Amino acid sequence: MFKLPSFLKDAVHLFYPHICTGCGSDLLKDHALLCIHCNDELPHTHFADYENNPIESIFNGRITISAAHSQYYFSKGQLIQQLIHELKYKGNKKIGTYLGEKMGETLLQSTRFKNIDAIIPLPMFAEKEFKRGYNQAAVIADGIANAMNIPCYDDIVIRHYSTETQTKKHRAERWKNVEGSFAIKNQSKIIGKNIMLVDDVITTGATLEACGTLILETPNTQLSIVSLAIANT
C-alpha cells in the first residue's frame, strides 16, 4: 500500500488536523476518533455478560427479551454526554459509528448475544429525521452491524407520528405517549429471527418497550435490546 512520506503527512496534519473528538488532543491513532485518555474515561457498564443486569430489570414484567445491554453510564457534564451531543446535534455521525463499533466489539465477546440475526434501530418520525438529516440510533446500529457482521434493517419498523417529549413524564404517561406510534413494514424479513433493537440512550425504556412489543408480534421472533448509554431517571 502506498504511504505518504513523513513530511507530507506532517503537512496534511497541519492543514487537516486529526484530533480527538473528546478533548481535542492530536495524540491518537490514525483511524481513532478518541485518544487513549478519553477512551479510558468512558464509563463502561460491563452489563453485557450478566443476566438480570439493570437494563434487563427495566423491562422485567413489561416485555419478554432474551438479553439487554447499555455500553455506558450517561452523566450530565461528562464526556459521554458531550459525545452523544456531537452525534445528535452537531452532525457528527462518525462518532456514532465509532461508538457503535466499540459496542459491537463488546457484544461479540459476550456469549449472550451470539445468535442475533438482524439489527433494527429505533425509528424516528420521518419529519424529525428529515430535519436532523439522519436517525442517530441508525448510525449507532450501523456501527454495531459493522463490528458484528450482521445485517441492519432500517425499513422494518416505522414511526408514523411524532410524540411529545418524554423528559418530564412519569412512566405511565411515557407509555401512553408512545403507544401505537409504531408500525411494521416488510414483516417477512424478520419472521423467525432473533432481533436486536438499538437506541442511543435508555431512560424509562417506554419507547423501546412499545417498539419491541410490536416486533414480537411477528411470528417466532426473539428480541434483545441495547443502547449506547443508560440514563438516570
What features would you describe in this structure?
- With 233 residues, this protein is an alpha/beta fold.
- The protein has two domains: 41 residues, no CATH class; 188 residues, Rossmann fold, CATH 3.40.50.
- Helix content is 38%, strand content 15%.
- It is built from nine helices and six strands, in the order αααβααβααβαββαβ.
- A four-stranded parallel sheet has the order 1-6-5-2, with helices on both faces. A two-stranded antiparallel sheet has the order 3-4.
- Helix 4 packs across helix 5, helix 5 packs across helix 7 and helix 8 packs across helix 9.
- The longest helix is centred in the middle third of the chain and has 17 residues.
- The radius of gyration is 19 Å and the shape is globular.
Total number of strands: 6
Class by alpha and beta content? alpha/beta
How many helical elements? 9
CATH architecture of the largest domain: 3-Layer(aba) Sandwich
Share of helix, binned: 25-40%
Give the overall shape, derived from the CA principal axes. Answer: globular
> SSE order in H/E notation?
HHHEHHEHHEHEEHE
Largest sheet: 4 strands, parallel
How is the topology of this model organized?
Elements: H1 6-15, H2 36-41, H3 54-59, E1 67-73, H4 79-89, H5 93-109, E2 118-121, H6 126-132, H7 136-148, E3 157-159, H8 171-178, E4 182-184, E5 194-202, H9 206-215, E6 222-230
Parallel strand pairs: 1-6, 2-5, 5-6
Antiparallel strand pairs: 3-4
In short, what is this structure?
The protein has 233 residues and is of the alpha/beta class. The chain contains 9 helices and 6 strands, in the order αααβααβααβαββαβ. The chain has helices spanning 6-15, 36-41, 54-59, 79-89, 93-109, 126-132, 136-148, 171-178, 206-215, and strands at residues 67-73, 118-121, 157-159, 182-184, 194-202, 222-230.
